[in-house]
Structures are given as C-alpha cells and as structure tokens.
Amino acid sequence: MTRGRVVIVGGGLAGIAAALDCARDGAEVTLVESRRRLGGAAYSFTRDGIVADNGQHVFLRCCTAYRDLLARLDATDLVTLQARLAIPVLAPGGHVAWLRRSALPAPLHLAGALARFNHLGLKERLGVARAMRALRDVDPEAPAAEGRAFGDWLREQGQGAAAVEAVWGLIARPTLNLDPADASLAQAAFVFQAGLLRHPAAGDVGYARVPLSAIHDEAARRALALAGVEVRLRRGATAIVTEGRRFRVEVNSAPTLEADAVILAVSHDRAARLLPAGAGVDVVELTRLGRSPIVNLHVLYDRRVLAEPFAAGVRTPVEWIFDRSASAGLDAGQYLVVSLSAAEAQLDMTVEDLRACYLRALAELLPAASGARVETFFVTREHAATFRAVPGARALRPGPRTAIPGLVLAGSWTDTGWPATMEGAVRSGQAAAREALAAVVRRPESAHNGTTPHRASLVRTA
Question: For residue 97, is pLDDT > 50?
Fold first, then answer.
C-alpha cells in the first residue's frame, strides 16, 4: 500500500534526505529541482581546468544525520573523518600551535591543547578555560540566551580581543557564519556544547576527499533512483496551489504535478515567494532572517606550500585554508582554498584587491608560499550562503508544519536547533518527511490509496 504521492521542491541536502525517507516509508515521490544538478549550496564546478567546490564544507563527528545520509548514498568512502581532533593554527612568521584533543573525558580532553596554545598568554588561556566551563551551563533553549549577543557574553566573561580571535571566533565564525559579536548566545552555546564541550570525540573534523558534486549530485542521484524517486532537473516550481485536501505544483516548462503532500525544501527567500495563502507562515519574518555571505579564494601554487590538509589562521585576514589538490585531481603543485565566513567586507572587494591582500597574507603564514609561483587565482562568492543567526533569529525560524495539512517546510533555515550547516539541512529534511507522511496518513481518502508505488526512477534534464 502506498502512502500517497509526495512532491519535493528543491534538490539540496534537505530535499534529498526528505525524498529518501518518504520513499523508504512507502510514498510515491517526485523531486523537482530548478538547477541541472542536485546538491543545493554544496556543489562543484570546473574553472581554469580545476574541479573546484563552490565553498569548503566540513562536518564533525557529532553530525550524525549527515553521516547517516552519506551511508545511505553509499558515499562514506568518499569522505575522511579525523581519528582525533587536530587543528593547526598558524600565525604570521610560520608560528604554529595545535588544538588537539586527548583521550580524557570532556571537557578535560581540551585541557592539554589549551595549556600549550601559545598564541595566547597564560592569563588569557586560563580565562578561556573558565569561560568554556561557564558556556557549558548556558541553556541554548532559554529565551534569555537567545536574546543575547555572544560577544556581550564573552565580554562579561573577561574575554579580550585576542582570545575572541584565537579561540572563540575560530570556531564560531565558520559554524555560524557570523562574527561572535553579532551571533546569538544560544546558537553559539549550542555549537560549542555539541561540538566540543559535551563529548570528547564530537569535534573530530570530516571533509570530502572528492568534489562535492560526486557525493551530493552523482551519488545522490544513484541512491534516489534505487529508492524509486523520480528526479526532474531543470524544473523549478513556480507555484503551489491547494485544491481541497490535495495540491498542484506548477513547474516551469513541464506539466503540473498533483500531490497529497508537498515538501518545500528551498531557501527561505524562495519559500517566501512560493508559499500559498493560508500557510500560516509570516513571509515578512522569513525575509528578516537575512543573509550572511561566504567568500572563497582559490589559489593554485606551482609547489606544495601547506603540509597539512587544513589549517586555521590568527592575527591574519586568512581564516581557514584547505588543501584540495587531491579532490581536484592535481598531480603537481598544490591547490588551496581560503574560506572566509561572514564576508561582508570581502564581498565587495575586487579580485585584484583580494589577490594582493591574501597572497601576501598566505606568504606570511606559509614560508614556502613566499617563493612559490601562483598559477591560478579566482574567487567564488556566495552572497546568501546562510541566514543570520543573530539574537532573536530563532523566533523567525518556522518548524516543518504549516497551517495547511500536507504542506511542509525543509531547509537549514527551519527550526532544527542547528545553525545553517549540512547537518541542519539533513535534519530538516528528515523532520519534513515525518510530517508529510503523517499528513498523508491522516487523509484516508487519498486518491492514491490502494495503488502500487512506482520503483523505476526517471532523471529528466531537459
């Protein structure tokens, strides 16, 4: 017995996760995506002969939903996950300090790394340790924490500019895509607790060994086909119309789709445009979630200049550096990506200005780079990479259910508790699938009851 027909609008991680869950539980599923690929904001492209990702996406061991999705995509062997957290933190002049965890229980697993973290003085390190203990006691669900800025809380804990840059910003900036001064205390507390302070292995870092599209597009298409999901690419939804207890999804240059449930798994801006009247979602509040950009600098050197797979920077405009040579298929030289979060200032800089500033900064961090030749330099800019997790933003994030039974929301901007990450996107898709399937079950008169769900997937690209 089928559990009705579900149409999913959007082929990012949220849409992929929702489609797999709905198909697994017996629904007939069609996924429509306006682009010619799946993967949403985590994708690859070719530029100057380099297979590049649009940005550097990482996950942590605590990202259990995303890791489970990798297994369902048969893509676990396409990523690597550290056996134990180890982050080299570079300062100008080639000075390196490591953030490594030990085998001790949390939070003692970080005590040795903090004691040896010589980018800060002894007094600052002790202050960071005290603030870490205090942050463990902050309740991320408390309205008071959601209404406060992380930067204000850090100042109350005696954290100066050096500590904020070298420790707090090192973690908060890439995970929240905001400066600590701007971020919600509740969201920052969640990130530090989930990734560092509760379980010793939670913060071990994982990343793709291949181009992102090999996982989120190619492997995803195979998995969706095996699950019986019909995937229609280059078919963006233009309207969602309610007809009694069912839906019509109007699609550009394609026949209208009928459904018992619709999962809207697109950005919050696009969701605001597609939501039909009566959905009970304040579209003005959705737009108030805002946008926070990410800029990535792609640098190909004629030789190896970075010995580690990735590193962070302090006292430098360089935030995080990743060696993507292997994923790009290079057999000579080294291809580095510099990832810049909360990049409002860099968003408006010219390529020439970015090149001059950051190549100089890289040479100060990596002594080998000062004598290396730059063969390629280009920039990718994600103007609306994430929503802004500022104080009060959680109240603007809706859950999966709308006021129209069967119309469901998904995306990392929905209220998963997580920031705008791959983990948050997958969790939102799972929650949306549960809600959509429940809505169909509550509708016994569904026209699809008693029919057999299709099992042959069709991927349409034109």
Answer: yes
Residue 461 reports pLDDT greater than 50: no
Mean pLDDT over the full length of the chain: 94
Q: Residue 443 has what pLDDT? A: 63
Phi, psi of 339 (to 5 degrees): -100, 125
pLDDT one-digit tens code per residue, 354-371: 999 999 999 999 999 999
Percent of the chain whose pLDDT exceeds 90: 92
Q: What's the 3-state SS for the chain?
A: CCCCEEEEECCCHHHHHHHHHHHHCCCEEEEEECCCCCCCCCCEEEECCEEEECCCCEEECCCHHHHHHHHHCCCHHHEEECCCCEEEEEECCCEEEEEECCCCCCCHHHHHHHHCCCCCCHHHHHHHHHHHHHHHCCCCCCHHHHCCEHHHHHHHCCCCHHHHHHHHHHHHHHHHCCCCCCCEHHHHHHHHHHHHHCCCCCCCEEEECCCHHHHHHHHHHHHHHHHCCEEEECCCEEEEEEECCEEEEEECCCCCEEECEEEECCCHHHHHHHCCCCCCCCHHHHHHCCCEEEEEEEEEECCCCCCCCEEEECCCCCCEEEECCCCCCCCCCEEEEEEEECCHHHHCCCHHHHHHHHHHHHHHHCHHHHHCCEEEEEEEEEEEEECCCCCCHHHHCCCCECCCCCEEECCCCCCCCCCCCHHHHHHHHHHHHHHHHHHHHCCCCCCCCCCCCCCCCCEECC
pLDDT tens for 139-190 read 999 999 999 999 999 999 999 999 999 999 999 999 999 999 999 999 999 9
The DSSP code for 309 is S
Would you say residue 460 has pLDDT above 80? no
- What domains are there in the chain, each with its CATH number? 5-36+212-289+391-460 (3.50.50.60), 44-80+290-386 (3.90.660.10), 102-202 (1.10.405)
